[in-house]
Amino acid sequence: MSALRFSSRLNPMLSNRILSQTNLLFTLSSFSSSFKKTSKHLYCTSNSTLHNNGGTSLSLSSNSPLSGLEDELVGYIFGKKKATEVAHLVWRHVLRKGDMVIDATCGNGCDTLAMLKMVADESGFGRVYGMDIQTEAIENTSSLLDQAVTPKEKELVKLFPICHSRMNEVVPENTAVRLVAFNLGYLPGGDKSIITISRTTLLALEAAKKMLISGGLISLVVYVGHPGGREELETVEVFASGLSVDGWICCKFQMLNRPLAPVLVFIFKR
To answer: Which PANTHER family match (predicted)?
Structure first.
């Protein structure tokens, strides 16, 4: 079993770990439809029942914004779910049909496709702005969309072969962006010498911060197993740590005994 650390700026003292094979102590925020937060200290057990510190079971209805999240977290904790799967589930708790979103690192298109499925509606609303510095990544993403969605749905995706630091150049001014997602590292199956770097990632985060609407999310999966990956994670951590507590909720999921495992970072705008 992998040990996992969850840390949150809601309470810096709660940056802790697996308590036993079945229990993980962490801080979880419950979100209403207007994305107001109420901090609760919860135990997450292996059967996905949630308990408070007094041992009372907390029942989650099927229409709760937290419904299903506990299953993915438990799967991640026990090594049965990937970091990207947890990220996608968190997105589903944030996004609505018709939303505007940004895939800042298209890669092979899996995140772009997931976003499109979450925001596209039958009336043709919703938009995904996708970008990647590598032409190969844009081509791979376009090819995946051709296979997976209808031409009408694909029209809702705008792809740009540019660095994520330039997202403000291609996303129209005053666009109400609800999600900006990053996969930081190199293109899977591509040239491993071409990687995201701290300098441009920081510029991209600053741009994303300005575009994000209240109730929106910056989501990052940071790969650290390649040269420069650890430094880029540090850049993300410094950025998130510098955000005001009143305006933002910043948290991180990290495996303690798997130093090369990707790190999940979520930055919520209140």
So the answer is: S-ADENOSYL-L-METHIONINE-DEPENDENT METHYLTRANSFERASES SUPERFAMILY PROTEIN (PTHR35276), TRNA (MNM(5)S(2)U34)-METHYLTRANSFERASE, CHLOROPLASTIC (PTHR35276:SF1)
Q: Tell me how far apart the alpha carbons of residues 158 and 181 are, in angstroms, rounded to a whole number.
A: 15
Instruction: Give me the CATH number covering residue 224.
Output: 3.40.50.150
- Residue 233 CB partners (closer than 8 Å, separation 6+): 184, 222, 224, 263
Residue span of the structural domain in which 159 resides? 82-269
Residues 176-191 pLDDT 10s: 999 999 999 999 999 9
Most confident of 17-31, 56-70, 77-91, 212-226: 212-226
Give the count of beta carbons closer than 10 Å to the beta carbon of residue 24: 21
* Domain presence at residue 14: no
Residue 261 lies in a domain: yes
Is residue 182 one of the residues assigned to a domain? yes
* Residue partners of 152: CB distance under 8 A and separation at least 6: 124
Do the domain assignments include residue 23?
no
The token pair that represents 268 in the structure block: 């919520």
By the 10 Å C-beta count (0-12 exposed, 13-18 middle, 19+ buried), 228 is classed as middle
Per-residue pLDDT tens digits for 127-141: 999 999 999 999 999
For residue 257, the SS3 value is coil
Amino acid identity of 25? L
